[in-house]
Amino acid sequence: MRVIADTKETVLKEVRIKSGASMMKLHEHIFTEFGLNAGEMASFYYSNTSWDQGDELPMFAMDEDMPAMEGTTVAQFFTDSKNGLYVYNFLDMNIFYLEVVKTEEEEGFEDFVVLSSVGELPKLEASASTTGSKDPQEMTEAELNALYGLDDLDSGLLPRDENDEGDDISTEPHY
To answer: Is the pLDDT of residue 151 over 60?
Structure first.
């Protein structure tokens, strides 16, 4: 299988995974091998040769009739098409193109093996995923504002219109 990161630079890994492995295992191997932060949400999407996004295979089923990564094998996922999409961390939108390039007998090899690797993912600027490990209670106001994209907002009260002086709204707290 070829796993290609959607980046400006060429970043890809050719891997071998057993067809009976769960898509959850593939998910875990991808984020580990590409150096992504563990613990983020992700989904696989069925795709075609044009890389059109199809139905979602989420990490966890929302109801008992819904498929999920743990209950779907690699062979089941790639039954109708040899292409798929993988989206990791919906805030940073790490997108990977998955392509089955060859199938072979599975005897004698490990569950997951990286056969070749080209390039590395660029390191992200401080974002929710990279600063998420720091306790928000220990963060400064500037760090929190940067984390949540609020650095352009002024703190304090909303500006009042000069014509609002006569309204009956009290600024005293009510209990």
So the answer is: no
62-80 pLDDT, tens digit per residue, is: 888 889 999 999 999 999 9
Q: Provide the residue ranges of all domains of the chain, joining segments of one domain with +.
A: 2-118, 123-153
Mapped onto helix, strand or coil, the DSSP state of residue 30 is: helix
Cβ-Cβ contacts under 8 Å for 104 (sequence gap 6 or more): none
Cβ atoms 77, 22 nearer than 8 A: no
Percent of the chain clearing pLDDT 90 (strictly above)? 49
> What CATH number is given for 2-118 in this structure?
3.10.290.30
Q: What are the two backbone dihedrals, phi and then psi, of residue 34, each rounded to the nearest 5 degrees?
A: -90, 0
Q: What is the pLDDT of residue 131?
A: 44
Alpha carbon 10 to chain centroid distance? 19
Name the residue with tokens 């989904």. Answer: 43
Strands (E), 64-131: 83-88, 94-99, 112-118
Q: Are 36 and 69 in contact (CB under 8 A)?
A: no
